[in-house]
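Ex. 9. Protein: DUF2075 domain-containing protein.
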Amino acid sequence: MVPHLAERWKRFRKNDASDGERAAWAESLVELARVMVDAGRGHVEMVVECAATIGQSPKSVPTIDVVLLGSHPETEGLSVQLVELKRWSSVTQVDSATATEVVVPGMGKKPHPALQLEANYQRFVGETGPLRKLSFECGGFTYLHNATEESIQPLLGINAPMGAYSAVYTRDRREQLMKDLRKHFGGDSGYSYAEILLRRMGVRNTPLLDAMIMSRGEDTVFTLRREQRRVADHVKDRAAKVLGENATDLERAVFVVTGGAGTGKSAIGLQLKAEFEAAGLEVRYASGSRAFNGAMQRHVGYGDREFQESFTYFSSFMNPPEEPLDVLICDEAHRLREISETRSGEKGAKPQVEEILDASRVAVFFLDEGQSVRPNEVGTQQFIVDAAEKYGAPVVPLDLRAQYRCGGSDAYVNWVHDLLGLSGKEPGKWVPDGLMHIEVADSPEEMERIVHAEARAGATARMVAGFCWPWNPPQGKEKRLVADVRIGDWHRPWNAKGDSYCENGAVPPGTLWSVHEGGIGQIGCVYTAQGLEWDWCGVIMGDDMVRRDGQWVFQRGKRRTDKETGYRRVAVPGSLDDEVRNSNLSDEEFRQCVRNAYHVLLTRASRATVLYSTDEETRAYLKELVGEVQIHGLRPSWQELPPALRVPHQKRPEHRRPGKKKPQAPEGQDPLF
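Predicted structure tokens for DUF2075 domain-containing protein:
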């Protein structure tokens, strides 16, 4: 526990945890946990070193040792206790007239802990606090587990601070503490009340597509945080100069925003789109992903032609507009190709990035080079810089580091990087952090059971796999999908290709697979998952990446044609992605493409990833890293959310008519979080 807390501390506080902090965690947190268990309240959740921050840097914000969250025994509503843990064994009084300040032997003067608790209460429930405007019981106490009541009398005297946060417990009042905890917290309801705090702190975000549906037509789509807002403001300020009244038509601005999965690239891009459109500018939002554009055009923008036409592809500018667009936002720009090519085979006359620069006065590229999954995807920062130089357009590089996907768990994202060999570090064992959950299934049936159960309960959930099986075309007039993903007796189809429904309309087209309720029965791949997210994601690692003798081995597969059925099947296990397994690709390029593909797949979940490998040795390795999962209290299932947080995900809007109001957030839900 201590090394994990120290890593989180360094991540947020930007410095190493002191030996004193580490000793306090090892001693005080464990003692508080024992008290909770002995009181029969081991189910109450502890949020440790919590800063009441929304949109602020937690580096300079005071933290409270522990926030306890559970249900109240009488009201059954939220109950919160703020806790200061002290290892003091004795104190002496400074001023006989007051006990607001005491002397701790070896540490000097210290404020009364009740004053710290009162200040933290104001931070949590004040006008900008995460628990503002909530109806709940909140109190606080100090626990000095090394002291006796006699040794800390100045903290208990008549002159000591009074109030809901002035309770002080010592080791000889442990029984009283347990009795009072039972008054504050009821039995195990099965709900995770910490989720209320995490949601209100912005750690749990409203999914991108839900936010778009609720905010479509408004100039505010997302509330951007810290560096996200800084990046957006920088783009807007520079664009205002290029597009202002005194600017010439030859002036251009080019931005390259880099950031890993979940850093908010799409959120910034979509917010910029909304703000530029609200200012009356002509804007297009381009992507190299048919799945992302399909979700925007056919799900979010259903029935709204103007909205649909504002989303397009990188290859749409082979013939530039007569007048350049004011702003062209390019999401997933790592998927830029050298030359544009239409589905009919028509090719562009110049590099794709130059077509984009010709078509716009302000171009904003969002990219993550770690998500480039095909050899002909050439979108890098240097590639864009070189192209912009030909136009005399200076490039403004901007970087995003804080990530908000995967439950905001940087520990999980770093673990994925280490696991796949993208960081150069050996992966350590996964330590649950309360933000992101991961488990390894013993079979595809088990993985499917978990994912489908969450989907039935109301969560968004999908299963995806490495491209290790052939992809046969739909069969017959009804367009029946072939069960191509075959693992033992478990056979499931890939998602449908193209824009057409299959199986008499029951199976959505690939462009809607990620959001249509009928998509849960098919397996997605990196090309239909990139740029999107779900609460739960089952990831099947195929034989293109297996563990042998302590290292990863990458394999190119071969396919065969079954003589009886005519279906393509696996002949040699490994990658069957034609563009990746191509013999023209070097071994190192092949390895990088496979790693990047699994990096995309493993970072699609916002709450939990369920892993399964088709290879027994690899599966054993993953189980060793992840460990056995104690299901009770650790699996963040949809049913464990308090009822108020089980907000249904947004359905596709009805056909939009002029003047019709946009969908509203359910009562009690902040529309932006």
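Check your answer against this statement. The chain has a mean pLDDT of 87.
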